Amino acid sequence: MSSLAADERMAGAGLIRRLLIRPELGSVVGAIAVFAFFSSQSAVFPSANGVANWLDPASTLGIMAVAIALLMIGGEFDLSAGVLTGTTGLVMVTLATKYGWNVWAAMLAGLVLALLIGFANGLLVVRTKLPSFIVTLGTFLMLQGLNLGVTKALTGTVQVSGLRRAEGFEGARALLAGSITVGGVDFRVAIFWWLGVTALATWVLMRSRAGNWIFAVGGNEQAARAVGVPAARTKIALFMTTAVAAWLVGSIMALRFTSVQANSGIGQEFIYIIAAVIGGCLLTGGYGSAIGASIGAVIFGMADKGIVFAGWDADWFKFFLGGMLLLATLANRVVRRYAEEVRR
Amino acid sequence: MTPPLLEARQVGKVFGSVIALKDVSMLVRASEVTCVLGDNGAGKSTLIKILSGVHGQDSGEYLLDGVPVRLSGPREALDRGIATVYQDLAMIPLMSVWRNFFLGSEPVTGPLRRFDVARAKRVAREELRNMGIDIRDVDQPVGTLSGGERQSVAIARAVYFGARVLILDEPTSALGVKQAGVVLRYIARARDRGLGVVFITHNPHHAFPVGDRFLVLNRGTSLGQFDKADITRDELTSLMAGGAELDQLAHELGRDGPVEAVPHDGPAEAVPDDGPVPGGGRVAEGDPVPDAGGGSVPEGGPVREGGR
After folding, report:
1. Residues in chain B within 8 Å Cβ distance of A207
2. pLDDT tens for residues A210-265?
3. Ranges of H-type helices in B131-225
4. Quick one: which of B20, B52, B37, B31 has its CA closest to B199?
5. Nearest CB to B137: which of A14, A224, A340?
6. Three-class SS state of A158
7. A157 reaches B (C-beta below 8 A)
8. A284-297 pLDDT tens trace
9. CB contact under 8 A, A6 and B103
């Protein structure tokens, strides 16, 4: 870790402790176990094609899980993140198909809307001091109603489609929803977006002032404020980051399927949180990792596709999800006690 | 003589109909320790919140280097060299020592304004060593430090960031005897480095050895500011609680007190040896004896009713 001479009392035990309190530890162990398990069930699963296959669901989930992880480290939740992927997709497809906008311009409009919603979420939370769980539950329900109501009013159905015919579609699709061939295997381009988002988030968390502030406002907001951390700005920025991630995922999905259902994204918000928690984020904030959240998403991708590879009923996925969540939270609690224990 | 670093003249603060502080004056000079003593509810917290810019005073004057000022907030106080170390919110337990040390004032480098982690770790280690603070590893979470070590890191941080006045809010109150001694030593060290220190405490035994000047507060008013030469430790103790109240307490706690009014299964004179005296001896008729630890007596200080 550091090149400077460590204290002589830090031998041995310190290294083990340091490894143990890495937030990613639980998710890495879990990912290895899940990979080994499904590899024993199906020969395709560990092959390059299999990997490309299960990395695909991991990628869009991962982009969201990373953003939610930053937000959770900052001490807040966003339940509206899932439905916002639907909202941004609906806005983009509606503008491009009903109003003849260029796809790029429609995407930009979706981004502006996402930023506004993220800002509103953040502002409400920091101004009212209400739990973000409640505030974003409100936004979640409102967006859910808007998605359905506006879509029905405009199209008479519960979906918007026909994005393929819109101007600028091919370029946008290649950038966000295309494939890249590596060594004869097609990988969805979303996977690279996800890797980029994870790398950027990790850099911000570990190597920027903002990262220090995120840990601080989640760990103890008052203490952070007392030493001059702009806590309100940090939190609002985190909500806006989550909204941008939702916009990115919403756009990827819309460009891939060329249509968006009005109920798209609903129910996903908890999966993002679960992936972040499996990745080592504490529900109470102040601790966690972007890489961990990504690995949490990989576990879900593997389980999602692995169950299919193994020829099982996909209903078992939910059971698996619940089990992983319980195990991860228990492991995190142990870690937190270990990290926080005070020697007096 | 140069003007004092910080001076309060007859400051007062009112919250609604509650007069939290009235006509309190104090001064802080470089290389001196000014102790603010008072029991719970005496107005210590209100006074330091005014000094640290959290509240503006409603009356009186606040001077820095002899110039009257009105601080816009804690950030301005910090920028003017007034650092406050709060008792309970000094540190963020899950963050490492070096991250805590630079929190809010992180050094950056390069065009991307990257957090200069290597420098942060090196400086944190050096500064702690300079203050004589023996931390095993700056990477360890602050939560694994003892209470005294945490206070010491917070003090070292304030000194490093160019504080001229260091306000310490009850830094020793939650600590054992040995740990409190450690913190007192760092207070002395900060003073020797030329800082003016405001040391808030309810414990005259902690204040007296390190203090140069003592301000005693009671129920929001000042009982006076004394130089060390003008007061003894016993006078200070007795002034803090009001001498009459101490005598009354001593009388009540005596073995010939009204113990016959207490219904009890065991021996009536039994006093639990692992906790403070329950209820300070003021037990109403018919009430059961409160559990040990129910009423806490401030370390070394007298008991007074009407906490905050």
Report:
1. 114-115, 117
2. 999 999 999 999 889 878 899 999 999 999 999 999 999 999 999 999 999 999 99
3. 147-160, 177-192, 204-210
4. B37
5. A14
6. coil
7. no
8. 899 999 999 999 99
9. no
